[in-house]
Automatic annotation (TrEMBL):
Protein keywords: Disulfide bond, Glycoprotein, Membrane, Signal, Transmembrane, Transmembrane helix
Domain Bulb-type lectin: 30-152
Residues annotated as domain Apple: 344-426
Pfam families: B_lectin, PAN_2, S_locus_glycop
UniProt key word Transmembrane: yes
Taxonomic path: Eukaryota, Viridiplantae, Streptophyta, Embryophyta, Tracheophyta
Organism per entry: Ilex paraguariensis
Signal peptide: 1-24
Name of the protein in its database record: Uncharacterized protein
Transmembrane segments: 435-459
Amino acid sequence: MAISFRNPRNILLWSLLFIFYSSALFSHGANTIIQGQVVRDGEFIISAAQIFVLGFFSPKNSPYRYVGIWYDKVPIQTVVWVANREEPISGDGGVITIGSDGNLMVLDGNGNSVWSANASSIESSNSTAILMDTGDLVLSRNNSDEALWRSFSYPTDTYLPDMRVYMNVEEGESRVFNSWKSANDPSPGRYSMGVDPRGSPQIVIWEGLNRYWRSGHWNGIIFTGVPRMRAIYLYGFRLLNEGDGRLYFTYSKMNNSDLINFRITWEGYERQVRWDEVLREWSVIQMQPRNECDLYNKCGPFGICSVVNSPICSCMKGFIPKDLDQWRNGNWSGGCTRRTPSQCQRNEGESGREDGFLGIEGVKLPDFMDGSESNNEECEEKCLRNCSCNAYAFVSGINCMLWSGDLVDIQSFDEGGNTLYLRLPKSELGGKRKVTILVIMAVSVAGTFFLSMFIWLLWRYKSKLKGITGSRRKNHELPQIGANPSGEFSTDFSGTGDLSVEGQQGSGQELSLFNFNSVAAATNNFSLENKLGQGGFGSVYKCNFAFAKTTHFYFNEKLCGYGLMEWKP
Ligand SMILES: *[C@@H]1O[C@H](CO)[C@@H](O)[C@H](O)[C@H]1NC(C)=O
Ligand SMILES: *[C@@H]1O[C@H](CO)[C@@H](O)[C@H](O)[C@H]1NC(C)=O
Ligand SMILES: *[C@@H]1O[C@H](CO)[C@@H](O)[C@H](O)[C@H]1NC(C)=O
Ligand SMILES: *[C@@H]1O[C@H](CO)[C@@H](O)[C@H](O)[C@H]1NC(C)=O
Ligand SMILES: *[C@@H]1O[C@H](CO)[C@@H](O)[C@H](O)[C@H]1NC(C)=O
Ligand SMILES: *[C@@H]1O[C@H](CO)[C@@H](O)[C@H](O)[C@H]1NC(C)=O
């Protein structure tokens, strides 16, 4: 190539070429469909910043045509939304248009409607559909910002950033996303994904009508049943309240140029991916379920699943297999039953005061809790008093959790998890005196520990914490405030005096840690202007660090700590 940048004329030439190329790109598609306009098969609607495309496509190995939305710049066809997933079009005569009633619709080659947005209240001859850079297709009246219909409210199988997944405690579980039938067929498949808002919300995957996987309850920072799902909060995953009991999950991109999404795959996996511009492929950030123990209720009621054990299923202490032959043959679905009836069961109607609790550490807590707002001591008391209560747990960010009836879908983790307190008769627990002595000992040890920690902390704060000190440490040197094996938040001060959240090293990702003073400064002393939102878990702030990108900061009084995450590709 003879063209050199040293020659100013060549720079001009390059600039002209660039301008020509850019305008050529822009001119090959608008981002709107107006009333009366017809978008034919082979024509495309492209979002303003050329992130998403709307048009006709065929899945690989499929002869049919579908209207969908996919990524413009991703060479591997990645469809995030499908309109006529149940009514494929044969041949290339299909069109997208806005009908005379103002509805967005898809017609086949014979002019028959195969799909309509069905916004019944439209009755407008002035509507326009716009494909946004978020991937949302929005139908609205001319001169109005109010959406009549939007594709984000009718997702297919993909959860995009900024999409809101609404839930209503009264309405119970909602199945929001539905998998494709197969890689070639976008019609609804066997798996769906959504939320169960009861107690504290959790994400659920269903296979048909049955639960197939669940995330465990949200504690404000992570889903308690997925202790390693840290990538989610790296991406600003949060639960927000819109008022009227309407809660929604949403997440945002940390870097605007990131392409990320969640999808329920036709094989039943929840998969979160990010486009890797260097490798030119989707890299998987996390995927669930990951192993046999993640499968819903693998070991049946009162069974515990652990991947490091062989066989993976065992009964909880004080329980024996319900059907020993089936259990020995590896059919664990029947679960376990009490070896000795609890005091409650033996004396129907009596208080059950003679029962006690066994703490089982590092587990995925059972499904179907009954929520309660008590503190820890009241929690135990409440469970003890009620004979139908089989277990309780206390988790920061959720508070007291009680379970009556069968305890299902319990997994033992080798890292993370929470402590479940299982109701057992005294005979299964050992003597009462022994327990009392242990409690007294534990209380005095803990008291001494906290007192010395407090004095030490005071000393640290006076002597050291000023501004950002050593805030970019390597991961293995991290001081940690994060879910300890019992899932409660605690601070490990063995490193330095900085409070910080533990971060997991992903592929090339690095977390930067900030001390309290610098976070206070970056959020303008937690000013309202910097406050982005408020959920059941606490507040989310926007931080402006001189040296870092603007980032999000989670603050939670209940958790007695805070975390801050920065995404560094
Ligand atoms: C729209 O409404 C019609 C008639 O009520 C129904 O047959 C069709 O399935 C609906 N389409 C969508 C996409 O909901
Ligand atoms: C369409 O919009 C124009 C102005 O934006 C308004 O004058 C006209 O009445 C509208 N037509 C209908 C049918 O709503
Ligand atoms: C609606 O708005 C589009 C541009 O946004 C315009 O081209 C079209 O003429 C408008 N329709 C009516 C009926 O005013
Ligand atoms: C976002 O990511 C792109 C490419 O991955 C990078 O070039 C850019 O600097 C990043 N932006 C910010 C604000 O970090
Ligand atoms: C597994 O065991 C349960 C009872 O515990 C029984 O009802 C079921 O049929 C068994 N399934 C198989 C495949 O044997
Ligand atoms: C005991 O717990 C059950 C189930 O949570 C509840 O329905 C019942 O009202 C409770 N009884 C008392 C006395 O609190």
